[in-house]
Specification:
Layout: H1 10-13, H2 16-41, H3 44-80, H4 83-86, H5 90-102, E1 107-113, E2 119-122, H6 137-146, E3 150-156, E4 163-173, E5 176-185, H7 188-196
Antiparallel strand pairs: 1-2, 1-5, 3-4, 4-5
Helix pairs in contact: 2-3, 3-7
């Protein structure tokens, strides 16, 4: 169901760092401000060491975010190979999606939509209920028009206190785009990435 000759390349074509920068900037900005103050208050020798550590930390953070997003895309690709989806047996595919959802840290929902935006299913509602149309259109349209995975900024969730970002995978059969398979992911997974990074001792 994935486009055969471009099954790996798409992950590199969509700029996960660029599209997710807004998701982590709120967490990183206080650190940057503190780091600037710290750099002004320590010796030149130690300042150079701290700057190198900050650079290494930033690179590690960017790589960790890339891995998180690529892992999400890879998991969606596995789900997209479901025989139930190929047979258009959406009731059974709903079960496949729910089981996959339960294994993923930070995933809130899996949705399947047609290229025109009509939702086929949403794991947040029982199968058979009428799922709402796609509301976050920017990343959805980008995935449909480019044929490559796309990621959104933060969007409102099903409850007022929910925030998530969408990772979208176009699903092809031969050269025809059939669906867009999406995962709704809590930004808490990105906060975990921040917490797991090695920071300079002064932080």
């Amino acid at each position: 169901l994935a486009r055969p000759s471009e099954d790996v390349a798409p992950v590199k074509r969509f700029s996960v760092r660029a599209h997710l920068f807004i998701l982590v900037i709120a967490a990183v900005l206080p650190v940057v401000v503190f780091s600037g103050w710290l750099a002004l208050s320590i010796s030149d020798e130690r300042r150079g060491a701290v700057e190198r550590e900050l650079h290494d930390t930033a690179r590690g953070l960017a790589a960790a975010v890339d891995r998180e997003l690529n892992n999400t895309v890879d998991t969606l690709k596995i789900l997209a190979t479901s025989r139930n989806l190929e047979r258009r047996d959406f009731s059974l595919f709903y079960g496949d999606a729910r089981r996959r959802l339960e294994t993923q840290r930070g995933w809130l929902a899996v949705t399947l939509a047609e290229p025109d935006g009509r939702r086929v299913l949403n794991t947040l509602v029982p199968y058979g209920d009428s799922p709402e149309a796609v509301t976050e259109r920017e990343s959805f349209t980008r995935a449909v028009s480019s044929g490559f995975p796309a990621v959104s900024g933060l969007v409102a969730g099903p409850r007022s206190d929910d925030r998530s970002y969408m990772v979208r995978l176009p699903v092809f059969r031969d050269v025809s785009l059939l669906y867009v398979l999406s995962a709704s992911v809590t930004p808490g997974s990105l906060r975990d990435i921040l917490a797991e990074q090695k920071h300079p001792d002064e932080w």
